[in-house]
Amino acid sequence: MAEEVKNExxxxxxxxxxxxxxxTQQMLRKAAEDGVETAFHRAADMKACPIGADSACCxxxxxxxCRLSSKDAYGKVGVCGATIDTIASRNFARMVASGAAAHTxxxxxxxxxxxxxxxxxxxxxQIKDEQKLLEVAESVGIETAGREIKEIAVDLYEELERxxxxxxxxxxxxxxxxxxxxxxxxxxxxxxxxxxxxxMEIMHRTHMGVDQDYENTTKQCSRxxxxxxxxxxxxxxxxxxxxxxxxxxxxAGVDMGCLDEKQVNIIVHGHEPNMFESMIASxxxxxxxxxxxxAGAEGLNLLGMxxxxxxxxxxxxxxxxxxxxxxxxxxxxxxxxAMAVDVQCIKQGLAPLAECYGTKLFxxxxxxxxxxxxxxxxxxHHPRKCTDKVVKEAIKRFKGRKAKIVIPQNKSLGIHGxxxxxxxxxxxxxxxxxxxPLNDNIINGRIRGVAGVVGCxxxxxxxxxxxxxxxxxxxxxxxxxxxxGCSQISLAKAGxxxxxxxxxxxxxxxxxxxxxxxxxxxxxxxxxxxxxILIACAEMVKTGGLGESIADLPVAGAAxxxxxxxxxxxxxxxxxxxxxxxxxxxxxxxAETKFHKLLFDGLERQxxxxxxxxxxxxxxxxxxxxxxxxxxxxxxxxxxxERVLMDMADRRDLEVIPDxx
Length: 661
Ligand code: NFS
Ligand code: SF4
Fold this sequence. Notes:
The protein is α/β, with parallel strands linked by helices. Helices cover 48% and strands 10% of the residues. The chain is globular, with a radius of gyration of 24 Å.
């Protein structure tokens, strides 16, 4: 209720300091006028707990909770005698388990749909991309020649189910891991079995009094995270491509300016594409369109937010209203007639805002209800029941709109939908699709390396700022950037997904972009689509000339504004795959501890990747570029180059981004 979210006595939010997103700034000003609060306000009012931020506390049993000192990490132990390394590594392991569970359960849902489609029990979805089905089946050793699609699909389901349920043995997609990388995993004992087994084992090992050696716990972190990256997330991506189509470049709009006052605005916010796909069918149903017209609307305007939004943006060009830190402020526009959410990253704070502005908010997934919010269950066997109902409720709200509507007029057009397959075609041409041109351009130095910039936005840092500045700095230094999730949306809003943004790139990268006609920043989709980055890395190794394992590649990753436990799982699977991965905001370790040193240094010595940390985007870019150069040096392809550091004049020049192409 509006009364409950009144924000009168609290100090004023320094709006320009908390976000660089123009639409979000405008809506925060409106929120102040309307007397409502958002996560930005709550973050400003509630300081993060310093002991928790350092992961120096444990509540795994009732002899505690125990708080160790962040300042003197080895000065104290828990009641059971647990050291800081035990406590921090156990906490970290549980973050990995939760993040991996979120991705793998999402992948399992996709696989459930696939099984029912193949069995003919779900008729609203079909196998849309048979070519992809064949490729995925062949990649896990399933015979395809002369066989029916259905037969192959049944085998593929059974094979991929092992990703989750297998008690012993390696998960199916290890067939895609470069042999040297896989050899390293085997040597270290971190090749995942089924995700269920790995997650169960983490929860067991982090119970009071079980695994009390941080090095041993960290191995299980890697193994579980790998069951996410090369397991659950990869299944989610591949099955979604098979069912809904493999993305290829598509022009689409991003930002709150995609809302339209004259239409019924419906936002889908969440992570699983199945509900979104059904919603696309609903808003294109002539009967529902008629109903909308009867209510006085010019049409049904469907938009995405967060990851399922990023996924359908990439796959179908559905417009995207904003990333994680804009999900509340978009309601402040008053223009959202309905918002349907499913799982993950749905702030409970949406509920009072929706009530205040009269937006119909619906939960749809049996796993995720919100107290006081209406639930319309989405059932894959008759998906339209749920999505048609949401559309009808949205039309009702449109008809009875009472809230004052203010839509920020910001909208950025850009190209999205660069699947790992498409990167092949784009660089190599349809008839000689391969990663050879990418590798060649890396070897000849036009492209210095590749960086994955991914992850959330977080009210503890200025929204979008770290993502955007980091990516600009990277491309200026000839580093090709691939993106997913909320980070992709930050850069899309800043106009970097346009091919002509290659003017911001260094000479070498600019030349490649202009020849191919691609932007220097490639949007790959949602967070589970980080698996596309793993596959691209594996392809680069396979193509040759850049070393024998993923750890040899001149690549780096970053989660500059992360907040979710999923980001921790993603970070750990990139590190375990051999990639240097830098986190921003904060990191749940104390720098002087043995556990911290293992993650930030020791793992690399074992032949894996390692973690890095920097809050400042330029410092973060420097860490990544230095790492890329170190790898180039080791490969003997360094040539003569220096890192171009941006001065203030350069930074000012970059403020102006061309908005048409
Ligand atoms: Ni990824 Fe997607 Fe966004 Fe972060 Fe949340 S929506 S799965 S976790 S906040 S990038
Ligand atoms: Fe304290 Fe040990 Fe119990 Fe954790 S497990 S709460 S450190 S006694």
